[in-house]
Design brief:
It is a single chain. The chain is mainly alpha-helical. It has one domain. The chain has 11 helices and 4 strands. It has a two-stranded antiparallel sheet with strand order 1-4. Strands 2-3 form a two-stranded antiparallel ribbon.
Length: 303
């Protein structure tokens, strides 16, 4: 029951406070990661896989150990754990970034919608039409709901404060180093593979959650047939099941860093619109409620 209550407390803090506007620990961690990458990878990306492993260990393991020590403190350890979970969650932030995109689309302000969605996705948004903007935002809601919310909860339940810190820092390094380009192909290999491993089980639990909260049979069919075609082993199940649950078509061509990528289509149905961004966010919120309810029920039965 204590784990369930801690999860409830962390989610409540995130909903009430949102991301810290000043002094967010992940911002400081990002600066540390930049310095490590510059030292071990060099300006020309000359680092090898072993350099990436070393840099990952130096960035993640000491802070994970600190989280374990702080979470083990008598009397205040439980409060530290709740605060660390809060820092790792991005539930309210997801809505703060995506709802303005939907609002701009509803108002017919395509330029504003492109700019807003460009803050949260890595693809080129300058030439997107309304459907392209809605598609990018809906994909972001489903995938980031998995990475920034559900996976953090999963690792907190499984391993407490050190688990959620290890996961969140690893996920951040994947976002910074896990690119398949000349600079990061070798150096970022460890960050990308570790993130894949840490997200493997949570992503499938999230896909199941999305399927249960929408059109279950269609979500399962899309997950089974379309997810293996996606280049990410974890984003594929999450977005295929989510798109199937919502009854929209995601994926398709997208431009990343000036290069056109022909992505498979995920889901079934019409192209997404502004309302589908909101529906995807509602499904993430409902999924969090479902997880919390299951944790509280499980804790009550064990009491």
């Amino acid at each position: 029951m204590s784990v369930a209550l801690s999860c409830l407390g962390g989610v409540a803090l995130d909903v009430l406070l949102g991301e810290p506007r000043r002094g967010h620990p992940l911002v400081a961690f990002g600066k540390l990661a930049d310095r490590l990458e510059h030292h071990f990878n060099g300006p020309g990306g000359r680092g090898w896989r072993s350099h990436g492993v070393t840099a990952w260990c130096l960035a993640v393991l000491p802070l994970t150990a600190v989280a374990w020590l702080l979470g083990s403190l008598p009397t205040v350890g439980w409060l530290v754990e709740i605060c660390l979970l809060y820092m790792a969650l991005g539930l309210r932030s997801l809505g703060d970034h995506l709802l303005p995109v939907a609002r701009a689309l509803r108002q017919g302000d395509l330029a504003e919608a492109r700019q807003r969605v460009g803050f949260i996705v890595s693809r080129d948004t300058r030439e997107l039409d309304e459907q392209g903007v809605a598609r990018a935002a809906t994909e972001s809601a489903l995938e980031n709901g998995s990475d920034a919310v559900f996976a953090a909860l999963f690792w907190f339940v499984l391993a407490g404060a050190p688990g959620v810190v290890l996961y969140r820092l690893s996920n951040t390094l994947d976002a910074m180093w896990g690119y398949r380009n000349e600079r990061f192909e070798r150096f970022g290999w460890a960050a990308a593979r570790i993130d894949d491993v840490l997200n493997f089980i949570p992503a499938r639990l999230v896909a199941l959650t999305y399927a249960l909260l929408g059109h279950t049979r269609r979500a399962w069919r899309c997950w089974r047939t379309q997810a293996p075609l996606w280049d990410s082993p974890n984003a594929g199940p999450v977005m295929a099941a989510g798109a199937g649950a919502l009854g929209v078509a995601l994926g398709g061509p997208a431009v990343y860093h000036g290069e056109l990528h022909h992505r498979p289509v995920l889901g079934e149905g019409e192209a997404p619109q502004a309302r589908d961004i909101e529906r995807a966010l509602d499904m993430v919120w409902a999924g969090v409620g479902l997880w919390l309810l299951a944790l509280l029920l499980g804790g009550w039965l064990d009491a």
